[in-house]
Amino acid sequence: FQVRVFLALVCAAVLALLYVLLCFQACRWPCCRAPGRRGSPTAPPPLERSLCRRCAVVSSSGQMLGSRLGRAVDGQECVLRMNHAPTAGYEEDVGVRSTIRVVSHTSVPLLLRNQPYFFQQSQDTLYIIWGPAKKMNREKVGTTYRALLTVMETYPHLQVYTLTEEKMTYCDDVFQNETGKNRMKSGSFLSTGWFTMILAMELCEQICVFGMVSDSYCREKNHSSVPYHYFEKGRLDECKMYLVHERARRAGHRFITEKTIFSRWAKRRNITFTHPSWAGG
């Protein structure tokens, strides 16, 4: 009898521990912190949110034009968008919902130009901002960080978080592990898509990526010519942009290299690509 009681207590303790660990994973996202209020003596809290079963990662590519995938995008449990890509005027192709918007420090000024759209109409959206330490530094109050503080004072209910320096370093380390190259020494810039995919893999059980081409697409003879961004028609060509950056010796976004890596990740994770559809690995 005593042995049974002991085993029951051990099982209960193990289950309790698993529950705590799972709850922590589901409820706390230590990669991101809210900007601290001016004069606040306490450290800002980490992001807390539940995990998502099915996620849409929506590319800003011109591939989305004419796709009529809006309903499929909105049908996912969580929708992740990037930078200042709008939905207004493109609802049929890209949907209307925005659960999370991952934003580069360089795109923050573009959000600020259209505050009613991004910060008033999209109050349910969670914003995750990434950028270098000199722009995002909390102690020295970098320029981007200062702008975020001002925005949060204007819109106190806005959900804005920044990637921690530890998470930024982690994303650099992932790039080096996957390519064998140091990001800074190789003159490479990571794209917002890179950070979005890493965050999506931590947040989502299933990921459906909309509008992202494969690593070989732009080298195919008969590939379609589409705008770099679906909301900037007649400007930059997507493939020309990708190839220029891939070949740049310095300050190049390695879009094609990143897609090669995404393809490998898709072999290990539940990630699919649609419009165009292509197989991971």
TrEMBL record:
Annotated organism of origin: Rhynochetos jubatus (kagu)
Pathway this chain belongs to: Protein modification; protein glycosylation; Glycolipid biosynthesis
Recorded topology in the membrane: Single-pass type II membrane protein
Chief localization: Golgi
Lineage: Eukaryota, Metazoa, Chordata, Craniata, Vertebrata
Keywords: Disulfide bond, Glycoprotein, Glycosyltransferase, Golgi apparatus, Lipid metabolism, Membrane, Sialic acid, Signal-anchor, Transferase, Transmembrane, Transmembrane helix
Reactions performed catalytically: 3-O-[alpha-Neu5Ac-(2->3)-beta-D-Gal-(1->3)-alpha-D-GalNAc]-L-Thr-[protein] + CMP-N-acetyl-beta-neuraminate = a 3-O-{alpha-Neu5Ac-(2->3)-beta-D-Gal-(1->3)-[alpha-Neu5Ac-(2->6)]-alpha-D-GalNAc}-L-threonyl-[protein] + CMP + H(+); a ganglioside GM1b (d18:1(4E)) + CMP-N-acetyl-beta-neuraminate = a ganglioside GD1alpha (d18:1(4E)) + CMP + H(+); 3-O-[alpha-Neu5Ac-(2->3)-beta-D-Gal-(1->3)-alpha-D-GalNAc]-L-Ser-[protein] + CMP-N-acetyl-beta-neuraminate = a 3-O-{alpha-Neu5Ac-(2->3)-beta-D-Gal-(1->3)-[alpha-Neu5Ac-(2->6)]-alpha-D-GalNAc}-L-seryl-[protein] + CMP + H(+)
Recorded family membership: Belongs to the glycosyltransferase 29 family.
Keyword DNA-binding: no
Protein name: alpha-N-acetylneuraminyl-2,3-beta-galactosyl-1,3-N-acetylgalactosaminide6-alpha-sialyltransferase
Compartments (UniProt record): Golgi apparatus membrane
GO terms of biological process kind: ganglioside biosynthetic process; oligosaccharide metabolic process
GO molecular function, one term: alpha-N-acetylgalactosaminide alpha-2,6-sialyltransferase activity
The UniProt record lists the keyword RNA-binding: no
Pfam families per record: Glyco_transf_29
Documented EC number(s): 2.4.3.7
Coiled-coil features, chain-numbered ranges: none
CC per GO annotation: Golgi membrane
